Fold this sequence. Notes:
- One of its GO terms (biological process) is DNA damage response.
- By secondary structure, the chain is an alpha+beta fold.
- The chain has 14 helices and eleven strands.
- The longest helix is centred in the last third of the chain and has 26 residues, at about 385-410.
Amino acid sequence: MEFVPGRAEEVLREAPAGCGVFALYGAGEGDRPYLAKSGNIRRRLQRLLEPSEGQTKRLNLRDRIARVAWSRTGSDFESVLLLYRASSEAFGRDETRKRLKLYPPYVVRFTVENRFPRMYVTSRLGRRTLHTSYGPFASRASAERYVDGVNELFHLRRCHEELVPFPEHPGCAYGEMKKCSAPCQARVTDDEYRAEADAVLDFLATRGESLLEKIAAEREKASEDMEFEAAAAAHERYVEVKATAALAGELVRPLDKLRGVVFLPAAEDAAVVQVWLMQGGCLHGPERFSTLGVRLAKEQAEVGSSLFAQPLMLEAVPLEGPAATGESAEERLLGAIARMEGGQPPHDVATMADHLAMLKRWYYRPEAKRIGVICFPEGDTWPVRKMVRAAAKVGLKSIPAATTEVAEVAPERG
Length: 414
């Protein structure tokens, strides 16, 4: 949309009073655009384009802009993804990372290629080591707490040196406390250390389930054999392992196997949600998914069957829409995921780190401030019914926001 300072009110009247991404373009061909996201595009443009009153240090671009463009989004996370794509095209990847303050996430690296593997925390990602890198974690501190907890459960080395075992090696404090198998002093064979390393690898890959299942079986057997002291000790260890496993959120997985479907509200329709697929270290999408006709049993039990309580059930479905195809909601969702699975993975690890950083920043927000939901596969399959319900809840939660926006815009129509 063309912008003339004398007709700024017309442009501002057209701008949406909701979240999204906007661009301000100068008159010159070589002028770089001003790109930004905002929770209220109209209010932000008013600050940038309305005349300044008196002397102020506030940024004002009124006399430098020739064209204005914007794109409405349904959530802040969608705004971040859209701004990342637009900025990458306008400024390149390197400058975009600086503008959006995207830093590689911290992961736990397991040096499986070493003769005596160990764990350490790093933010350096390598394509050859994705299968032994576990994350992303919320911060370096949270990743270090997880590593410390896992090291307390097993007897891997914690030193950084390249070991050449010999009995006269001075060792370390962990070896003296029997918290390390001390391969430096040749206390264990290579095969024994490798067996311990494989157990740690299983723990990391299953987020603790491999060890929890083993201890639970030992506890059950001790109870059946009336060995109550052994059962109590096993239960105490089970609680300890459970607490350590909980230090890694559900998002923490081997990076090469990190898959998830993100549901975000759409801007234009509360009955439609956006579907994004995290696969291969990259967010693919979005695909549109209609939740019309999906009734949540829990909500129906709580508020009754009134259509006023579930307004989406009152919406008419067009004949050419999803209802006309005869496909169920589960089939439509699987179809949307299948279309995104053909997306190309990023060509460089830096781009992968960008997508992981954006996902991590959104996922580790307080739940009350996080708009949208992510669902993970169960084994090799998607829990489709659970995902359809999750998508419907995302659409249902966006109804009050849509109603509020209409209330804000309505007074300006007169």
